[in-house]
Design goal:
four-stranded mixed sheet; Lyase, Ornithine Decarboxylase, Chain A, domain 1; 20 strands; 11 helices; Alanine racemase; PLP-binding_barrel; elongated; TIM Barrel; alpha/beta; 31% helix; eight-stranded parallel barrel
């Protein structure tokens, strides 16, 4: 596992693949035989696209969800046989690659379909598509009242195969709203059946839906994202039913120690003033590294399992912590910023920033060490 030798720089991101497998197994046990689409958008939520893809592929995951065609091309060059769902429209000039690499686009409008068909005719090829229905997100997707026309068009096209019909639930923390939206979606599926349209896959389940709801047998595919990486957003005052483990950890170290006298101020704007003589440690990590500046002054990091409170404003590449009187530290002492002992849950609550935002910002730009 982690030791000081692992940390060659001032900052180390550790990705624990055992924890990823643990989370994957929890999902599999919950959903039974349904097909999993592992969501890898945003550089696998800051965990590293290629390594996470290779690991999940080795665990028999066949479908992957992306929003960036460059990422899709990267993965297809590693394994041309994998199936990739493109969650949003690709740029018009990339449609030729959509067909060439046999990607599976989410579609929601005729203009996109016509462009895809035109390219299929040029390449003498056929493409599988998933029709994306909007049931309340008001993001990418066709309104449910207009969806039958487009589904019928796809069904009758010689270049298109309606492999899937899907939607996205915007408010799984609100049970009543979610149930109503699911009922609308199920009613639409019934309409398709009456028109003799039978997609192979039907999917609506994001992380919140997988964990907090009983899934309809009609939903035979799921799209986990956040729960793969160890975090589960449950309805208020409800503890998560499953024990997910954080996959990403972030460590740094103390690079400088100094004494501050009572009355002296620390960092920009002097928002912290020492009430007594104290010792502080300088840590080379800040908001450039994804640490939100609004946790300044009262949040903490861990050093030797002791809480060390941040004092003063978090800087671009530095943070300052108070070292408790009974804690022995030295230059080079390890600092835990995100770990299994101090998960993103804490930073998310304190900063009022989502797990998604924090993970993506912390994982950005960095080399990571993978443990299995």
């Amino acid at each position: 596992m982690y030791n000081n030798k692992t940390m060659g720089s001032n900052k180390t991101i550790i990705i624990n693949l055992n924890n990823l497998e643990h989370n994957l197994n929890l999902i599999k046990n919950k959903i039974g035989e349904k097909e999993i689409v592992a969501t890898l958008k945003g550089d696998a939520y800051g965990h590293g696209l290629i390594n996470i893809f290779k690991f999940l592929k080795s665990k028999k995951i066949n479908y992957f969800g992306l929003s960036n065609i460059e990422d899709a091309k990267t993965l297809k060059k590693i394994d041309k046989n994998i199936k990739i769902l493109m969650y949003i429209k690709v740029d018009k000039k990339e449609i030729k690659n959509l067909i060439k690499f046999e990607l599976v686009p989410f579609v929601a409008d005729f203009e996109y379909l016509f462009s895809i068909e035109k390219e299929c005719a040029l390449q003498k090829n056929k493409i599988k598509v998933h029709l994306k229905i909007d049931i309340g997100m008001n993001r990418y997707g066709i309104k449910i009242d207009d969806a039958l026309e487009i589904a019928t068009y796809i069904q009758n096209s010689k270049f298109l195969e309606l492999e899937g019909v899907c939607s996205h639930l915007p408010s799984t923390e609100n049970f009543k709203t979610t149930q109503k939206q699911i009922e609308q979606f199920l009613f639409f599926l019934e309409t398709l059946k009456q028109k003799n349209i039978h997609p192979k896959f039907v999917h609506i389940s994001n992380s919140g839906h997988i964990i907090n709801y009983k899934l309809s047998p009609q939903f035979n595919m799921v799209r986990p994202g956040l729960i793969l990486y160890g975090y589960c957003q449950s309805p208020k005052n409800k503890k998560p039913a499953l024990n997910f483990k954080p996959v990403l950890s972030l460590f740094s170290k103390i690079i400088f120690i100094k004494n501050v006298k009572k009355g002296e101020k620390i960092s920009y704007s002097g928002i912290f003033q020492a009430k007594e003589d104290m010792k502080i440690g300088i840590i080379p990590i800040g908001y450039f590294d994804g640490i939100p500046q609004n946790i300044s002054n009262d949040f903490y990091f861990l050093i030797n399992n002791k809480k060390c409170k941040i004092r003063g404003k978090v800087c671009m590449n530095l943070a300052i912590v108070e070292i408790p009187k009974d804690l022995k530290v030295k230059t080079g002492s390890k600092v835990e910023i995100v770990s299994e002992k101090l998960s993103i849950d804490e930073m998310s609550k304190f900063s009022k920033r989502s797990h998604y935002e924090l993970l993506c910002n912390i994982g950005k730009y960095e080399k990571r060490k993978y443990l299995d």
